[in-house]
Automatic annotation (TrEMBL):
The keyword rRNA processing does not apply. It comes from Caldanaerobius fijiensis DSM 17918. Keywords: ATP-binding, Folate biosynthesis, Kinase, Nucleotide-binding, Transferase. This is 2-amino-4-hydroxy-6-hydroxymethyldihydropteridine diphosphokinase. One of its GO terms (biological process) is tetrahydrofolate biosynthetic process.
Length: 162
């Protein structure tokens, strides 16, 4: 069964509650959560006049194709009140496909690997937590984490998602 890595984030309302609801909705759709990182609080990227995010990364197994998985993710986001008004703006939930097996996708709807992931500590730090052995562009994830140094990311304790 294919393995994918998803980032999840929220910065509106009950941020922790939205992360948990998103995971439950993914599971209800038949997506198996294999591993889940800790929850991290992060400063916004891009549009910065908004609340801090809670972020995590999931390792999942799924029989869905990358585009089918994207459709499910969009349905979960819609069901949890996601509105796409401002690029990189505040949101109840944001779910991105980071990686999907060894598959590369590049079309108008989806790009895998995620094109911005190597620039984002809020993605790489939790990914490195659950899969420190993962290699991206022939380099270990720790290499990219070191390049980002401090991007305002803080690991939160006692907030289990599973």
């Amino acid at each position: 069964m294919p393995i994918a890595y998803l980032s999840i984030g929220s910065n509106l309302g009950d941020r922790y509650g939205f992360l948990k609801k998103a995971i439950a909705a993914l599971q209800d759709a038949g997506i198996e959560i294999v591993r889940c990182s800790s929850v991290y609080e992060t400063i916004p990227v891009g549009y910065i006049e908004q609340p801090n995010f809670l972020n995590a990364v999931l390792e999942v197994q799924t029989n869905y194709s990358p585009h089918q998985l994207l459709d499910i993710i969009h349905a979960v986001e819609r069901d949890l009140g996601r509105q796409r008004n401002i690029r990189w703006g505040p949101r109840t939930i944001d779910i991105d496909i980071l990686l999907y097996d060894e598959i590369y996708v590049s079309d108008e709807d989806l790009v895998i690997p995620h094109p911005e992931m190597l620039k984002r500590a809020f993605v790489l730090v939790p990914l490195g937590e659950i899969r420190p052995d993962i290699v991206l562009n022939k380099k270990p994830v720790a290499y990219y984490i070191d390049l980002l140094k401090e991007q305002g990311i803080k690991k939160l304790k006692n907030l289990p998602l599973l």
